[in-house]
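Re: the 265-residue chain
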Amino acid sequence: MTNTKATTKRKRKTTVLIRRPKGYRAVLTCDNAKTSKGEALGYRTGICYLAPGNESGVINTCTYASKGCLEACLFRAGRGAFPKTIRQRIAKTLFLVENRELFLASLRTDILALIRDSADMGMIPAVRMNGTSDLAWLGMQMSKEFPSVMFYDYTKLPKPYLRQRANYRLTFSYSGHNLNDALDALKHGVNVAVVFDTRKGQDLPVSWNGYRVIDGDTHDLRFLDTESVVVGLRAKGPARKQDSAFIVKTNGTAPLSNPFVVLVA
């Protein structure tokens, strides 16, 4: 598990030894832009990045992803655009498919290491199981096995409120084609992430379909958000050049069918 910053922030070193299974391969990543924002709030986050959609060639890890979502996927944004990173994420997905038992054993090892290292750093551990995938069973199983750790994910699978646990928080993702499911999630207290064409440094819309919009770019710790709000995200990577329903337009040129609504107080 990547842990390059721990040496500079560690307050005390424990003597807890974690035995790795034979054939162990790192599953979680703790060093990227998303996790660094969380560290400023006192959380050490491990994220599992798999190949999204059918990128691996062996499994569809995002069965409800729209065409626009896949085209704008952060799988190819930032470090994810590097060929080496793409190969690593595809290899990790193959690892899951070809040897699930060892994959899960490696994942458990990484979570235990995250718990230990977080304690050393005086931080709180958190895990995002689906960084670039949408496998409901994975987050549900790990959150059950580690009830003292907070897990969270974005998902496009309908009725996310049926899969949440006390330590597993889900945020539903709007795709441009699942408005009814998005409103259903909000009605049941689950937040909805919406990608807007708002540029970096500019304010996000005040509301969307009558629900208050919060700035989701300030950090990635979605379990800290209040309930029944829209998590506004600014288009990043390939999405900045995309013209699809996945990116909600805010400049007044969107068609009337676009669900963007501004409420005037």
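Residues 100-120 form the longest helix (21 residues).
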